[in-house]
Amino acid sequence: MWTGSNPVVSDLCSAVVSAAVIFAFLQLWKETAKHGLDQKLNRKLVHISIGLVFMLCWPIFSSGHRGALFAAFTPGVNIIRMLLIGSGMWKDEATVKSMSRFGDRRELLRGPLYYALTITGACAIYWRTSPVAIAAICNLCAGDGVADIVGRRFGRQKIPYNKNKSIAGSVAMALAGFLASVGFMCYFASFGYVEKSWEMLLGFLVVSLASAFVESLPISTELDDNLTVTLTSILLGHLVF
């Protein structure tokens, strides 16, 4: 993207820009948490926005493995942050408040850590030419995030096999994950990274429906939605794409 620059310097600049964008969003949600926005809503807004905004930055990196590794640097640093804050080695109450359900720093060693691992792996292993990366991040961020927000507000009718989950939340998850996936398919296709097709669209629908179903199972609550949704998206993605 940075015309005339050394390729390595160009990717380094891209990494700095993407890190600055993510840092700005994290600071925004830390401030909203400090100023009284509902903690559950704030946490899900972080969940939805960070991965999707970061994926919007992928085109500024170079093609090939080097660009993927530079892109993976930002979420990779966040893995270290989650480990340090979650273990208590680094005190950051604002981050704990914006990313945890109950204000316990140890929660960052589960969902938020799995979240950072997913995005890092999507960059380093799959990158922007892979629909698997699109499906994994979109179902994790848009799907799972929207499911919680909708489920808390409209989820009066519970799923028979899991009273902690609602039909409205599961439908919202499948729909949000699918629409976000299609949106990023079109976005990356505009740069020539993927080729739009009905087959890919159908694959996104299958993965989003399966991810919503797995997220609704009791085992997802026990293990963590961020883990089960990611594994479902990746494993099924390899079969349908």
From TrEMBL:
GO terms for molecular function: kinase activity. The keyword Transit peptide applies. The chain crosses the membrane at residues 12-29, 41-61, 67-87, 171-194, 200-217. GO terms for cellular component: chloroplast membrane. It is a multi-pass membrane protein. Its main location: plastid. Keywords: Chloroplast, Kinase, Membrane, Plastid, Transferase, Transit peptide, Transmembrane, Transmembrane helix. InterPro entries: Phytol/farnesol_kinase. It comes from the Eukaryota. Belongs to the polyprenol kinase family. This is Putative phytol kinase 2, chloroplastic isoform X2. It comes from Populus alba (White poplar).
